[in-house]
């Protein structure tokens, strides 16, 4: 009997919700644990991730979502995404200063007029997202900056 077949009938209790679930369906893989699965079930992990994201959003006034969006558009490497050809496919990136440090990005945003409802716009659309090439504009102005 293969290892996968043995695990099919095994169950495990989640360390957070205490629900007993099948190993092969209820838990993510984690090769550093003895049973090869995470300690918390998939539902609890998803809930924790969502709660973290919501707390971060509230604490930063929406800047965290903007930062995550930039990183997704410019650095995820998935060519099937709709926006790939406009950002990563054109070689557009987020500068290292912002990419590696959320606090620096947040501080720049707050010092340069960030408000909910504004869009981060690149002044030169062929250049990266970086302090000297970005500004906050209305969505209408941003859509018209296609140069």
Counting H and I runs of at least 4 residues, what is the number of helices?
7
SSE string, helices as H and strands as E? HEEHHHHHEEH
Q: Taking Cα atoms only, what radius of gyration do you get, to the nearest Å?
A: 21 Å
Q: What's the end-to-end separation, in Å?
A: 62 Å
Averaged pLDDT: 81
State the domain count: 2
Question: Beta-strand percentage?
Answer: 5-15%
Helix content: 40-55%
- Tell me the total number of β-strands: 4
Strand order of the largest sheet: 1-2
Unreliable stretches covering 5 or more consecutive residues: none
Shape descriptor reads elongated
Class derived from helix and strand content: mainly alpha
How can the largest sheet be summarized? 2 strands, antiparallel
Give structural notes:
By secondary structure, the protein is mostly helical. The protein folds into 2 domains: 3-44, no CATH class; 62-144, no CATH class. Helix content is 43%, strand content 10%. The chain contains 7 helices and 4 strands, in the order αββαααααββα. The chain has helices spanning 3-9, 23-26, 42-60, 63-75, 96-99, 102-111, 139-144; strands spanning 11-13, 20-22, 119-122, 134-137. It has a two-stranded antiparallel sheet. Strands 3-4 form a two-stranded antiparallel sheet. The protein is elongated, with a radius of gyration of 21 Å. 11% of the residues are buried.
């Amino acid at each position: 009997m293969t290892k996968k077949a043995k695990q099919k009938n095994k169950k495990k209790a989640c360390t957070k919700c205490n629900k007993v679930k099948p190993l092969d369906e209820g838990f993510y893989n984690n090769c550093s644990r003895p049973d090869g699965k995470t300690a918390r079930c998939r539902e609890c992990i998803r809930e924790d991730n969502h709660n973290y994201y919501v707390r971060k959003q509230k604490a930063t006034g929406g800047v965290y979502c903007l930062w995550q969006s930039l990183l997704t558009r410019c650095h995820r490497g998935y060519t099937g995404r709709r926006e790939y050809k406009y950002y990563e496919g054109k070689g557009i990136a987020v500068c290292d200063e912002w990419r590696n440090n959320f606090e620096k990005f947040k501080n720049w945003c707050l010092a340069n007029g960030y408000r909910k409802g504004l869009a981060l716009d690149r002044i030169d659309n062929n250049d990266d997202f970086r302090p000297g090439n970005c500004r906050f504009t209305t969505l209408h102005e941003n859509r018209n900056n296609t140069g």
